[in-house]
Q: What sequence folds into this?
């Protein structure tokens, strides 16, 4: 981001989208175009697999199946998607700052989901939520990667470093966040790498030789 000052502006995400379109000219609208079909498939998959999503599960599933307002089914998809994957044990390359030793880390499903999309209740918590992420990345010897944050289900941001891109819908925010990994040539957050890989493979139909081989993504 430091090399490209224009990206630090509020509309800098347009440059990310243009660059992705240059890289993959026929895949620009893949996420949006496949989402409605995926909603139907996800409902069928959840019923057949008998998933348990915790206390909030029933209300999220209800919005997925019979949304109370247009677009709520897409929010439900993105809330449920990271919960479909069992978190993987991660070998940390750096040393944890709290104890100074190299170690492994197995994120919880809640951590996996929050690394993908963070939901907060009001705008006053926006900078606090970001600081929590920065501090956690530092603790584990990691670099904070782009992520999506949603405020009260009405405002949607993609956060890259200290730049906040405000988008009009959650689908658009996920779309821009995904494209940023390719445009900026950076890795997915390790806590939710398999979630982003699924989006890459299923929605955008992009397969790379460098992709991690993760069984849950293939199945």
A:
């Amino acid at each position: 981001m430091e090399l490209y000052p224009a990206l630090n502006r509020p509309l800098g995400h347009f440059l990310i989208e243009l660059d992705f379109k240059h890289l993959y000219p026929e895949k620009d609208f893949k996420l949006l175009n496949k989402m409605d079909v995926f909603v139907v498939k996800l409902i069928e998959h959840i019923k057949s697999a008998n998933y348990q999503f915790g206390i909030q599960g029933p209300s999220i599933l209800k919005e997925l199946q019979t949304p109370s307002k247009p677009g709520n089914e897409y929010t439900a998809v993105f809330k449920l998607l990271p919960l479909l994957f069992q978190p993987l044990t991660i070998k940390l390359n750096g040393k944890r700052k709290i104890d100074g030793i190299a170690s492994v880390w197995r994120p919880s499903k809640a951590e996996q989901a929050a690394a993908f999309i963070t939901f907060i209740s009001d705008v006053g918590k926006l900078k606090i939520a970001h600081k929590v992420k920065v501090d956690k990345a530092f603790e584990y010897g990691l670099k904070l990667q782009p992520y999506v944050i949603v405020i009260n289900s009405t405002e949607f941001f993609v956060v890259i470093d200290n730049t906040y891109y405000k988008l009009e819908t959650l689908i658009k925010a996920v779309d821009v966040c995904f494209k940023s990994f390719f445009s900026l040539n950076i890795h997915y957050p390790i806590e939710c790498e398999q979630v982003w890989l699924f989006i890459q493979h299923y929605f955008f139909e992009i397969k790379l030789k460098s992709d991690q081989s993760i069984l849950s993504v293939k199945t």
